[in-house]
TrEMBL record:
The keyword Transcription does not apply. This is Very short patch repair endonuclease. SUPFAM superfamilies: Restriction endonuclease-like. It comes from Slackia isoflavoniconvertens. Signal peptide: none annotated. The keyword Hydrolase applies. Belongs to the Vsr family. Keywords: DNA damage, DNA repair, Endonuclease, Hydrolase, Nuclease.
């Protein structure tokens, strides 16, 4: 079956669905911390960053860069990656525990393994 392209497949929704299933609610979206973490439990200072592989230059799946307009894309990617690193460092300095979830870790073939390892860690950190 071909995956449909409805908004239900959006990475954020997939993540939130898994969190709900695991009973890990109580999070806030786009919390006002460096980089606006997609999902955050501010009281526990735990957050999830959900990154699109293309824009954030995923080290796991290495998405191919566009072949044209490199003078546009290369600095743009560079800025994105640097911004991510800066935000991650700021969050950690402020005492946040940060989990980065890449889009490619949420595919049909990978999502179960992703949450099998993530959920127990979150449970521990969130005390749930
Ligand atoms: Zn990826």
């Amino acid at each position: 079956m071909q995956g449909n392209k409805s908004k239900d497949t959006k990475p954020e929704l997939l993540v939130r669905e898994r969190l709900r299933e695991a009973g890990l609610g109580g999070y806030r979206l786009q919390w006002k911390a460096p980089g606006r973490p997609d999902v955050a439990w501010p009281g526990k200072k735990v957050c999830l960053l959900i990154n699109g592989c293309f824009w954030h230059r995923c080290p796991k799946c290495n998405p191919p860069a566009p072949k044209k307009n490199l003078e546009y894309w290369v600095p743009k990617f560079q800025r994105n990656v640097e911004r991510d690193q800066r935000n991650l460092a700021l969050l950690q300095e402020q005492g946040w525990r940060v989990h980065v979830i890449w889009e490619c870790e949420l595919k049909k073939k990978t999502i179960d393994a992703t949450f099998e390892s993530l959920i127990p860690v979150l449970r521990e950190e969130l005390d749930k």
